[in-house]
């Protein structure tokens, strides 16, 4: 079967800004080199002497054949004085390892098509995804290759389509859209567990659309309790995990966020979520007014990029809980930076989203850790997890 390739404009517009990058992926990462790239680099006349010290053979797999030995500043030794890659400039793109060749590009195969995207851990990708006016124009064309189709289960394709529809509902803001998506995913759980037919997902969409039109979903969101204790536990646990796992926790960008959080701690060094939420309500939220669609854009990217609510053998609700948790953490990061800078610039917003996704999209332990935290603090119902988005006042 001829397969297609779907490319959002944020992907086709992307081009690495190299020396101008605020957080180069060639600094502070574990960079793995595949076998083919290792051999070609070691054999290259102008690169081989540097390659002997710059790469360490680990032979974990063909993809992880060697690892880059970073210099004292955590930078890849193949960077030249202008922060350009010598492997690329001297030996050409073909010699680059797969990671270096493709990052931050990603590609997900769904059914018989390829869906291209970018990782938000790259600042330039974050800029395009969050701010470029036509980022979400999609191009679909035949790829010229053949893929054996693996049809998505109906609960997944319908949940995906219907979630996007609820996100884009003009009557709902991003928090209310998330509540609607949570209620839809409750039905997806039942379809996933073979309790009801997949057609119920369309019935549910119709009901939720009607409720949004009548303002009833909005009322439901308003009536949800503000549970600051829950928010403290979630924020402290997830940020604590980031302090342990962020590969660039000693870097300026992570420290900027960490210091901004510290400035809002209580005298006993515990998290004061009331102060964070106050900063959101009084500084961050008004500062974001000109980018009122910021979270809707992020959630649209998320649904597309992850093929939400796909999960690995877990009920769809687990994907929904992660989505809300991510939005909650990002809102808190934006609030603390807004408090520090008394406003939010585009580069502040990029900082928060990009730094967060270095762990979120690249640490395989994140999902397990975050799920355990949500189970521990009993974020099992839609109302419970959505209460993370309430900001009091
Ligand atoms: S993080 Fe993105 S823009 Fe920066 S050097 Fe890497 S690919 Fe280029």
Structural class category: alpha+beta
Mean pLDDT: 92
Question: Given the structure, what is the number of helices?
Answer: 18
Which of globular, elongated, flat, extended, rod-shaped describes the shape? globular
Indicate the low-confidence ranges by residue numbers. Answer: none
Beta strands, count: 7
Catalogue the ligands.
iron/sulfur cluster
Indicate the proportion of strand residues: 5-15%
What is the number of domains?
A: 3
Rg (CA only): 22 Å
Summarize the helix and strand pattern as letters: EHEHHEEHHEEHEHHHHHHHHHHHH
Roughly how much helix do the residues carry, as a percent range? Answer: 40-55%
The largest pleated sheet is described as: 4 strands, mixed
How do the strands of the widest beta sheet line up side by side? 5-6-1-7
- Ends apart, CA distance between termini: 56 Å
Note the topology:
Blueprint lengths: L1 E7 H4 L19 E2 L1 H9 L4 H7 E3 L8 E3 L17 H6 L6 H5 L2 E6 L2 E6 L4 H9 L6 E9 L7 H14 L6 H19 L7 H14 L2 H8 L4 H18 L6 H11 L10 H15 L6 H13 L9 H26 L4 H15 L4 H12 L5 H5 L7
Parallel strand pairs: 1-6
Antiparallel strand pairs: 1-7, 2-4, 3-4, 5-6
Helix pairs in contact: 6-16, 7-8, 7-9, 7-14, 8-9, 8-15, 11-15, 11-17, 12-15, 13-15, 15-16, 15-17
The site of iron/sulfur cluster has 11 residues, from helix 6.
How would you portray this structure in words?
With 393 residues, the chain is an alpha+beta fold. The protein has 3 domains: 26-102, no CATH class; 154-221; 224-389, no CATH class. Helix content is 53%, strand content 9%. Strands 5-6-1-7 form a 4-stranded mixed β-sheet. Strands 2-4-3 form a 3-stranded antiparallel β-sheet. Helix 8 runs antiparallel to helix 9 (200-213), helix 8 (174-192) packs antiparallel against helix 15 and helix 15 runs antiparallel to helix 16. The longest helix has 26 residues, at 316-341. It is globular, with a radius of gyration of 22 Å. The relative contact order is 0.13. The model has no long low-confidence stretch (mean pLDDT 92). Bound molecules: iron/sulfur cluster. Iron/sulfur cluster binds next to helix 6. Pfam families: CxxCxxCC.
């Amino acid at each position: 079967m001829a397969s297609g390739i779907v490319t959002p404009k944020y992907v086709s517009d992307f081009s690495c800004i190299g020396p101008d990058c605020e957080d180069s992926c060639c600094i502070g990462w574990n960079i793995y080199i595949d076998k083919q790239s290792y051999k070609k680099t070691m054999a290259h006349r102008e690169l081989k002497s540097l390659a002997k010290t710059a790469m360490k053979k680990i032979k974990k797999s063909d993809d992880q054949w060697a690892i880059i030995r970073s210099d004292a500043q955590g930078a890849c030794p193949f960077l030249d004085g202008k922060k350009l890659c010598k492997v690329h400039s001297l030996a050409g793109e073909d010699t680059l390892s797969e990671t270096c060749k493709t990052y931050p590009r990603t590609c997900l195969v769904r059914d018989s098509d390829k869906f291209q995207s970018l990782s938000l851990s790259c600042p330039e990708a974050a800029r395009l995804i969050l701010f470029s006016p036509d980022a979400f124009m999609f191009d679909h064309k035949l790829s010229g290759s053949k893929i054996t189709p693996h049809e998505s289960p109906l609960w997944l394709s319908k949940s995906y389509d219907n979630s996007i529809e609820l996100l884009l509902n003009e009557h709902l803001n991003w928090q209310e859209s998330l509540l609607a998506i949570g209620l839809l995913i409750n039905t997806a759980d039942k379809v996933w567990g073979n309790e009801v037919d997949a057609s119920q997902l369309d019935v549910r969409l119709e009901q939720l659309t009607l409720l949004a039109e009548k303002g009833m979903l909005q009322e439901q969101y308003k009536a949800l309790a503000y549970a600051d204790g829950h928010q403290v536990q979630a924020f402290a646990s997830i940020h604590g995990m980031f302090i342990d796992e962020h590969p660039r926790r000693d870097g300026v960008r992570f420290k900027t966020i960490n210091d901004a959080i510290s400035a809002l701690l209580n005298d006993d060094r515990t998290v004061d979520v009331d102060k964070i939420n106050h900063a959101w309500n009084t500084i961050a939220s008004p500062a974001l007014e000109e980018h009122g669609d910021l979270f809707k854009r992020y959630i649209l990217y998320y649904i597309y990029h992850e093929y939400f609510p796909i999960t690995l053998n877990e009920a769809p609700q687990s994907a929904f809980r992660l989505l809300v948790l991510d939005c909650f953490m990002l809102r808190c990061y934006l609030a603390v930076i807004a408090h520090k800078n008394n406003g939010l610039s585009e580069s502040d917003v990029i900082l928060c989203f990009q730094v967060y996704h270095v762990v979120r999209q690249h640490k395989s332990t994140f999902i397990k850790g975050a799920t355990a935290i949500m189970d521990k603090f009993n974020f099992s119902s839609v109302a419970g997890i959505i209460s993370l988005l309430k900001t009091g006042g």
